[in-house]
Design brief:
By secondary structure, the protein is α/β, with parallel strands linked by helices. 43% of the residues lie in helices and 18% in strands. Helix 1 packs across helix 10 and helix 1 packs parallel to helix 13. The longest helix is centred in the last third of the chain and has 24 residues. It binds nicotinamide-adenine-dinucleotide.
């Protein structure tokens, strides 16, 4: 398998965690005999310093010529005085827009070893493994008309969707659910909003093409409660843009640390993979950053851009192993050791990367010897 991956490490802890994710991808390439090329490119504050632009044309062109884009994080206090369209974060919004992905995937997983990190009780989170599929290019964030009329003291936004926009993201959700636990929960507010009635009717229509997948509809307000009460009841959760923004952040509580969360944005010209966290300037350069969100993001890249499901699952299993063995970066080193079942060892960003690498090597070795038998 040949894969050209654009690497936008960015600012703050971006380069630290991305480095660990790239090491894991290199290991997968080596073990599997794949040919992965990594193309380092500038985005965010580092790009402003070098070129004056948060998204240089050379970066954009190279991303569009890649098979996948792996991003770290952007944001640097140094540029806070610049207008919003010139700051590092503008580069992030521009690259997301230019790549054009319409389906944002965010897993929310309860890791047994981290159960004490979630404010929810372990018996509530146990077994939770949710994949959010959030529509990313439509809805209230993009609909027009939109305006704040300061002279009349009125402001308005428009939640607007077309049937085609709903159908394409619904299809992504059903396809993903087909390879998981075969359930899609579609979230809307169809008891009040016409746009949600269109959403519900369209999702129901798409569901007919996926008879093996169960579809349920939930109203967004009750969904907010169910996610905290019975998270293990959900498999793939399909939402429009605003509802997904809110609910996927709420559900991150299940995992317990921002540093653990991966994401992927698919469906556009080139898929974009990025951990959920930002550049964390408060811990940049201290070796405290948790690289697991970035490493799990690399697993998503292998799954969704290279169809290397076994390798993606092996990375995820290696992360579970390392956590179960008690290794913790500072952000997840809370809770009592007895609750977590293993003594905790505080490790740095690079140590955590190496531990995942070792666990991955062992599991791939085992897999290869099983194939050989
Ligand atoms: P943040 O995600 O950078 O940090 C929030 C808190 O979580 C901090 O205490 C930080 O130390 C901690 N944290 C984040 N990631 C961690 C990790 N991997 N390991 C351990 N701890 C981690 O959010 P913020 O502080 O609101 O923003 C900082 C900068 O990042 C700002 O410039 C913001 O605009 C930018 N930002 C970028 C992105 C992105 O690139 N996708 C996302 C959010 C914020």
């Amino acid at each position: 398998m040949r894969l050209k991956i654009a690497i936008l490490a960015g600012d703050g802890i971006g380069p630290e965690v991305t480095n660990e994710a790239v090491n894991i991808l290199r290991a997968v390439a080596e073990f599997g005999g794949h040919d992965f090329t990594f193309v380092p490119l500038l985005l965010g504050g580092v790009a402003i310093t070098a070129t004056g632009s948060p998204l240089p044309t050379a970066t954009l062109d190279a991303c569009l010529e890649s098979d996948a884009v792996l991003l770290g994080a952007v944001g640097d206090k140094k540029f806070d005085a610049l207008s919003p369209d010139k700051r590092p974060e503008a580069g992030l919004l521009q690259i997301r827009h230019a790549l054009g992905g319409y389906a944002n995937l965010r897993p929310s997983i309860a890791y047994p070893a981290l159960s004490a990190n979630s404010p929810l009780r372990p018996e509530v989170t146990e077994g939770a493994d949710i994949l959010f599929v959030r529509e990313l290019l439509g809805g209230l964030y993009f609909g027009s008309p939109r305006e704040w009329n300061k002279s009349t003291g009125e402001a308005w936004n428009t939640m607007r969707y077309t049937r085609a926009e709903v159908a394409r993201v619904a299809r992504v959700a059903f396809e993903l659910a087909s390879n998981r636990r075969r359930k899609v929960t579609s979230v809307d507010k169809a008891n009040v909003l016409e746009v949600s009635q269109l959403w519900r009717a369209t999702v129901t229509e798409v569901a007919r093409d996926f008879p093996s997948v169960t579809l349920e509809h939930q109203l967004v307000d009750s969904m907010a409660m169910h996610l905290m009460n019975i998270p293990r009841n959900f498999d793939v959760v399909l939402t429009e843009n605003l509802f997904g923004d809110i609910l996927s952040d709420e559900a991150s509580i299940i995992t317990g640390s921002l540093g653990m969360l991966p994401s992927a944005t698919i469906g556009g010209a080139v898929n974009l993979y990025e951990p959920v966290h930002g550049s964390a300037p408060d811990i940049a350069g201290t070796g405290k950053a948790n690289p697991l969100g970035a490493i799990l993001t690399a697993a998503m890249l292998l799954r969704h851009s290279a169809n290397l499901e076994e390798d993606a699952a092996a990375i995820e299993a290696a992360v579970r192993t390392v956590l179960a063995d008690g290794h913790r970066t500072a952000d997840i080193a809370r809770g009592s050791a007895s609750l977590n079942g293993a003594a905790q060892h505080l490790v740095s960003t690079t140590e955590m990367g190496k531990l995942v690498h070792q666990a991955l090597a062992q599991s791939i070795d085992q897999r290869q010897s099983m194939h050989a038998v």
